[in-house]
Amino acid sequence: MTQKITKAVFPVAGLGTRFLPATKASPKEMLPVVDKPLIQYAVEEAIAAGIDTLIFVTGRNKRAIPDHFDKSYELEKELESKGKTAVLEMIQGIIPSHVTCVFMRQSEALGLGHAVLCAKPIVGDEPFAVILADDLIEDGERGCIAQMTKVFEENNQSVLGVEQVDPSQTEKYGIVKTTPLSGKLSHIDSIVEKPKPNVAPSNLAVVGRYILTSAIFDKLENTGKGAGGEIQLTDAISSLLENETALAYQFEGKRYDCGDKLGFLIATVEMALLHNDLKDDFLTYLKQLYKTHKK
Predict the structure, then answer these.
(1) DSSP 229
(2) Given pLDDT bands bounded at 50, 70 and 90, which one contains residue 106?
């Protein structure tokens, strides 16, 4: 029987060194894109897919993340007293009442694979999603994870979100070798972490979206340190392929690499151009700015 995906893991223990000094005391996942932090975009994507248990694997200096998703009595009382009903409802709706947040501490910075393994006591033997907030994926109201949960429910196999990248950039990603099935779906033959372009099996890169069976936990427990001296999720998935089939899904939507400064700035501009209250005035400003700099 195919199981529904009801749990999502958010590995948020990273140090965010590429954004220092902004991330010295504030989590990179709390960097705002227009008017919402990166982690909120990821959470909204999970909730839109029907997920009702959100598992955050945190580290040091990450207190702002649970605070953001917690109830803020003082702020809500202040908004209510000033009659700011719309803003109050928005704040109260960040986490719907049927959704549960669980916060776990990753005691050591041992990599993405170890962060996912930390969630095992909560996930149990269910299939689950892994969402990396660094990758902001815009797909209207549906969301990337909603697409992938549908694929999982139809096939009952682990699903990795993938996209084609410039062949010169393969060293930044886990890269899959695949056999096409139908449409945007392929069978994963193999996966390798951050291969050099001259040995990469393809330019099909795994981005920060996964649907995994609970069998991954056994693989993670037996996976040694890989690239960067960390326990790599990619290595565990490679081991999983020896026992299970898995699928690569070329999702619909646009991915912004918000772990990179330029990608973050591009996301900020393009998301602002989708913002109902800002897009017209902001576009006017950008056109004027372009004319100024063109002279």
Answers:
(1) G
(2) confident
Query: Cα dist. 107→3, 104, 195, 223, 232 in Å?
Result: 31, 9, 29, 18, 16
pLDDT digits (tens, 9 = 90+) for 133-166: 999 999 876 789 999 999 999 999 999 999 999 9
Domain ranges of the chain: 7-259, 266-295
**7-259 has CATH 3.90.550.10 classification:** yes
Helix axes 144-155, 38-48, angle to 10 degrees: 40
What's the number of CA atoms in the CB half-sphere (13 Å) around residue 66? 16
Compute the distance between CA of residue 60 and CA of residue 82 in angstroms, rounded to an integer: 36
Measured torsion, CA atoms of residues 109, 233, 138, 10, in degrees rounded to the nearest 10: -50
* Euclidean distance between CA atoms 236 and 240, whole angstroms: 6
